[in-house]
Design a protein that fits this description.
CATH superfamily: Isochorismatase-like
Radius of gyration: 16 Å
Strand order of the largest sheet: 5-2-1-6-7-8
Largest sheet: 6 strands, parallel
CATH class: Alpha Beta
Structural class: alpha/beta
Order of helices and strands: EHEEEEHEHEHEH
Bound molecules: pyrazine-2-carboxylic acid, zinc ion
Shape: globular
């Protein structure tokens, strides 16, 4: 693939224990993204590109936890002070816990920036760029623009939430966006969510490639 790697970022989205098998919000085959992402990050970093990672990082009692809302259960949606229709999840990625740690086999050596998100009790963040109020910046846009990054390759978890929101925001901010399709896995709730997320990404000009083809 013809890419100017010096202007390319690989973004590893939420490759954390709680999204892997056995975790609090396990995504089917979530751990299968690790090997292709390690190969991609070695390749991108080795060609002068940048690698960054996001880390879902919630305080106890976070607004996105069903347990924080009496009478609500996982999968319900609530209007909060800052977000209409926030989906509720099991407690996950609590700051400092093993569940919030990156998968032990994810190679963090090439990662030069880690963006933690969802760290405010009252506000969730699916996207690596904007929190769920859709206004508050994480700072990633400025970092990328200051480095002259033009293309962002993404992989990780989950296709229908954090990858989806990150990819759509990234594209809307003017970057070329490529999803490594063998290096993502989805939650699949509500049913059909992965298919509709992939459809929306494709119709917004986000490209999908196998990681092997990105390294040719
Ligand atoms: C995610 C739900 C809640 C994700 C994070 O990483 O896709 N999904 N928090
Ligand atoms: Zn979360």
């Amino acid at each position: 693939m013809v890419l100017d790697y010096k202007k390319t970022l690989l973004l590893l989205i939420d490759v954390q224990n709680d999204f892997c098998p056995g975790g609090a919000l396990a995504v089917g085959e979530g751990d299968r993204v690790v090997q292709p992402l390690n190969a991609l990050s070695a390749f991108i970093a080795g060609n002068g590109g940048r690698v960054a990672a996001t880390q879902d990082w919630h305080p106890q009692g976070h607004v996105s936890f069903a347990s924080s809302h009496s009478g609500k259960k996982t999968g319900d949606a609530v209007d909060t002070s800052l977000v209409m229709g926030q989906t509720l999840w099991p407690d996950h990625c609590v700051q400092g816990t093993t569940g919030a740690a990156f998968h032990k086999d994810l190679n963090l050596s090439p990662v030069s920036m880690i963006i933690r998100k969802g760290f405010r009790k009252e506000l969730d963040s699916y996207s690596a760029f904007f929190e769920n109020d859709r206004k508050t910046q994480t700072g990633l846009e400025g970092w990328l623009k200051s480095l002259g990054i033009e293309t962002v390759i993404m992989g990780g978890l989950a296709t229908d939430y954090c990858v989806f929101f990150s990819a759509m925001d990234c594209r809307n901010l003017g970057f070329k966006v490529i999803v490594a399709n063998d290096a993502v896995r989805g939650v699949g709730f509500p049913s059909g969510s992965v298919e509709s997320a992939v459809g929306a990404m494709k119709s917004n000009g986000i490209e999908f490639f196998a990681s092997g083809d990105l390294m040719k």
